[in-house]
Design goal:
heterodimer; A: about 170 residues; alpha+beta; 2 domains; four-stranded antiparallel β-sheet; 5 helices; 6 strands; about 40% helix; about 20% strand; B: about 280 residues; T-fold; 10 strands; globular
């Protein structure tokens, strides 16, 4: 029993070590692929990776290599700035740029965020002050129903909703 | 009262009945109810189904009925653990909303009595909507004392939205704004709460027994459009009770549009209410 436990524990430890080694290898792979893609700048289709602005930090390395805006460093070492493709989001277009030095991303900047003025209001959907002339105007003849603070049965009789209902009875 | 001839727009048929201390209106496109007597009977049957939903919930939850389960709880004759599953479920809903609104919405009155009326009307509207759907009615507008839920369109098949008006709290015979409900949009519920109304069961958060209507409230009226009526109703109530801070928490945390009227008549609105 004891030996069996010891053996399985050893196996488990070995498994963890192998998994760790593999993931390390994987990271190394990614690093080298960024470097080679940047140096060669043959780049496959660059647009695949980054979905929206959030993805910029993670996967932009490999995805933006094909951009025309990139000024590839002269040396074999991957150095330069690379602009990602423009991605359409619910709030407008987003485009990011990365700076690569020695195969590592050292900076990510936003070339284009959603339209600065009005769209940014929509992102947070904040309620802002406005004039009565700026709201969607309505005449009681143009609406099919009316929302208001709860009316009692008595108050209903003189309400706009009662007028609408009476017209449709 | 407005003569029928002045009303333009889609031809509609409406039925009304009283429940929960207010009047409930069910409106459907005239096309959905063929002119024959059969169509009218169908609308009457649908209205009866909606009325049963409201009556059933009012019987359990009304604090105006001495014999209701809610009244027995309020008098201490019944404790919550012995109450019906429906009562406990709605109480659980209300507590969840109290957490989500950081206390701005509360199911307990300042005197300690459990009062779920801030939630029950919205819940009843939603349940009534399910009843209509289960009857295969695809285009309707349900209005319970100023809280509105719609499905489909006033012109069946057109995809057009229902046009809802929002009452001007400074002149209740006029409309302050319009909002396109349903149609291509996902917001098919619109609820309005006011601090000047009696029976709204709004208490300014953190101020003990002072009611919102007695001068504490920043907003005299708040309208919220959302994907479901309970969310719209609870958040409208919470914003009246919790003021500007709650308004911003609500617009940050939920997919809603808000039109709030300050005491002096100034407006605050999300882009959805802008012309």
């Amino acid at each position: 029993m004891r030996t069996r436990a010891a053996v399985s524990a050893a196996l488990a430890s070995a498994g963890i070590l192998i998994a760790g080694w593999q993931s390390g290898l994987h990271v190394a792979d990614t690093g080298s692929s960024v470097a080679s893609a940047a140096a060669g700048s043959t780049g496959s289709s660059g647009s695949s990776g980054t979905s929206g602005s959030a993805g910029a930090s993670g996967s932009s390395g490999s995805s933006s290599s094909s951009s025309a805006g990139g000024t590839t460093g002269a040396s074999a070492k991957a150095v330069g700035t690379y602009a990602g493709s423009v991605v359409q989001t619910r709030f407008g277009s987003v485009q990011v740029q990365i700076t690569v030095q020695a195969g590592k991303i050292t900076d990510v900047t936003a070339l284009q965020l959603t339209d600065a003025e009005r769209k940014s209001v929509q992102i947070s959907n904040r309620a802002a002050p406005l004039l009565r002339t700026e709201v969607l105007a309505a005449q009681s003849a143009d609406v099919q129903t009316i929302s208001g603070a709860t009316v009692t049965s008595d108050a209903y009789l003189n309400s706009l909703q009662a007028a609408l209902d009476a017209a449709n009875l | 009262m407005q003569p029928t001839s002045e009303l333009v727009g889609p031809a509609l048929r409406a039925r009304t009945f009283g429940s929960m201390g207010t009047v409930i209106s069910l409106t459907v496109p005239a096309g959905a109810v063929p002119g024959a007597a059969g169509g009218e009977a169908k609308l009457d049957a649908a209205t009866a189904a909606v009325e049963r939903v409201f009556a059933g919930l009012d019987e359990t939850f009304s604090l105006y009925r001495p014999d209701s389960e809610a009244s027995r709880l309020a008098r201490g004759e019944l404790c919550l653990r012995d109450s019906s599953a429906g009562m406990r479920d709605r109480y659980a809903d209300a507590l969840t909303w109290r957490l989500r609104t950081e206390g701005a919405f509360s199911p307990e009155r300042p005197d300690g009595v459990l009062d779920l009326s801030g939630l029950i009307k919205g819940y009843a509207i939603g349940q009534a909507g399910e009843a209509l759907r289960s009857r295969g009615i695809t285009d309707w507008c349900l209005n319970a004392g100023g809280d509105v839920l719609v499905t489909g369109s006033p012109v069946p098949g057109s995809g057009a939205s229902w046009a809802a008006g929002v009452v001007d709290p400074l002149d209740r015979s006029a409309l302050l704004a319009a909002y396109e409900l349903g149609g291509p949009g996902t917001r098919c519920a619109l609820a309005t709460s006011g601090s000047a109304e009696r029976g709204d069961h709004i208490w300014a958060a953190g101020f003990g027994a002072r009611t919102a209507g007695s001068s504490g409230a920043e907003f005299v009226q708040v309208s919220v459009a959302a994907a479901n009526i309970v969310t719209a109703d609870v958040l409208a109530t919470a914003i009246v009770a919790g003021g500007t801070a709650m308004l911003h928490r609500a617009t940050d945390g939920w997919e809603i549009d808000v039109l709030a009227v300050r005491r002096g008549g100034e407006l605050l609105a999300t882009p959805g209410f802008r012309a």
